[in-house]
Amino acid sequence: MTTAFTLDRKQRAWCAELRALAADTLRPLADEGAPGRVNRPLVAALGRHGLLSHVAPADGPVSAMDLCLLRESLAQECTEAETALALQGLGTHPLLRWGTARQRARWLPEIAAGRVVTAFALSEPDAGSDAAALRLRADPDPDPGVGVDVGWRLTGEKCWISNAPEADLYTVFARTGPAPGALGITAFLVPADRPGLGGSPLEMLSPHPVGTLVFDGVPVGPDDVVGEVGGGFAVALGTLDLFRPSVGAFAVGMARAALRAAVGHAGERRAFGGPLKDLQAVSHQLAEMATRTEAAALLVLAAAASYDAGEPGVARRSAMAKLFATETAQYVVDAAVQIHGARALRRGHLLEHLYREVRAPRIYEGATEVQRTIIAKELYR
């Protein structure tokens, strides 16, 4: 088993550089963005500084370890930059891994440069955690009007889609056959300018771009298929196996930021005749927060190393990393708020921001309960 118990000197230096870049360059761009909208200057900066090349490399696969280090480092200083990078990676990975040479040549350079915003369109109003229940139809059409003889028309709705409806390119999962469940699902690349494609933004707890997509007979053809017809669900699961540990890395980054704030506050704030850190109730709480955060970080690193080494059990390790790290981050951020008291709930405080940010990762890309189900099934495989 390949397990990363610690980072080497080069990795630690890179993480420090990423944190500095996030704090000095990306944070100001994030602050200038409109809540709930795609921040294109921020995405362009991610491309300009070479960060998007790690999720849209010109050659070779994505390194799960690099992705986790990227997300954890950015999350400590600028969650908006972290999320913008992650959403680009999530929307791009099906194209990167299963796309044709023509598809990759057309889109990857633009994505890596930060000029094209992508989205991963899997969830629907009645198919969230149970993604295999999706109902977006891909009806056969002998003349879809996209320069091919035979294709499909997409009809239905997607919901809770990050970067929708402002993305330039969507990876869309639709049902091309009558088979139930995961069978008969196909992945398509759908540019935003296709006729019949619309959508609207949703206001969410955290200020990220999330929205709905409406497909009113959107034309797609064989050149838009990612992977094989009927093989779309494997594309979705393969993408999530890579990104679930990195969701855990995002959570670890938020936990580290919250822990750092709590330690600083407990050392400075005086109450009951001394600093808060001298109160056993507070010091023991900080120790517990630190221990759980370190355990979550190690589980994420182990899952990433396992993925990169091609070891068996990737689905189980990915699920464990996401489950433990996101639950840990929720606990650590909440405990940090408690240590700070009312000031942490004031709009604009770091912990107020993290408190809103930390909730969603326990739901998206497979809720906590789904991760436990995956782990349990893998135990009996």
Give a description of the structure.
The protein is of the alpha+beta class. It has helices spanning 9-32, 40-48, 64-77, 79-98, 101-112, 232-268, 280-308, 314-340, 350-357, 368-379; strands at residues 118-121, 137-141, 151-162, 169-175, 185-191, 197-201, 210-220, 225-226, 270-271, 274-275. A 4-stranded mixed β-sheet has the order 1-4-5-8. It has a 4-stranded antiparallel β-sheet with strand order 2-3-7-6, with no helix packed on it. The chain has a two-stranded antiparallel ribbon with strand order 9-10. This is Acyl-CoA dehydrogenase family protein. InterPro entries: Acyl-CoA_DH_CS, Acyl-CoA_Oxase/DH_mid-dom, Acyl-CoA_Oxase/DH_mid-dom_sf, AcylCo_DH-like_C, AcylCo_DH/oxidase_C, AcylCoA_DH/ox_N, AcylCoA_DH/ox_N_sf, AcylCoA_DH/oxidase_NM_dom_sf. Residues 10-114 form the Acyl-CoA dehydrogenase/oxidase N-terminal domain.
Compact summary:
Residues 230-379 form the Acyl-CoA dehydrogenase/oxidase C-terminal domain. This protein has helices spanning 9-32, 40-48, 64-77, 79-98, 101-112, 232-268, 280-308, 314-340, 350-357, 368-379; strands spanning 118-121, 137-141, 151-162, 169-175, 185-191, 197-201, 210-220, 225-226, 270-271, 274-275.
Write the layout of secondary structure elements.
Blueprint: H1 9-32, H2 40-48, H3 64-77, H4 79-98, H5 101-112, E1 118-121, E2 137-141, E3 151-162, E4 169-175, E5 185-191, E6 197-201, E7 210-220, E8 225-226, H6 232-268, E9 270-271, E10 274-275, H7 280-308, H8 314-340, H9 350-357, H10 368-379
Parallel strand pairs: 1-4
Antiparallel strand pairs: 2-3, 3-7, 4-5, 5-8, 6-7, 9-10
Helix pairs in contact: 1-2, 1-3, 3-4, 3-6, 4-5, 4-6, 6-7, 6-8, 7-8, 8-9, 8-10
Cofactor: FAD
Family: Belongs to the acyl-CoA dehydrogenase family.
Keywords: FAD, Flavoprotein, Oxidoreductase
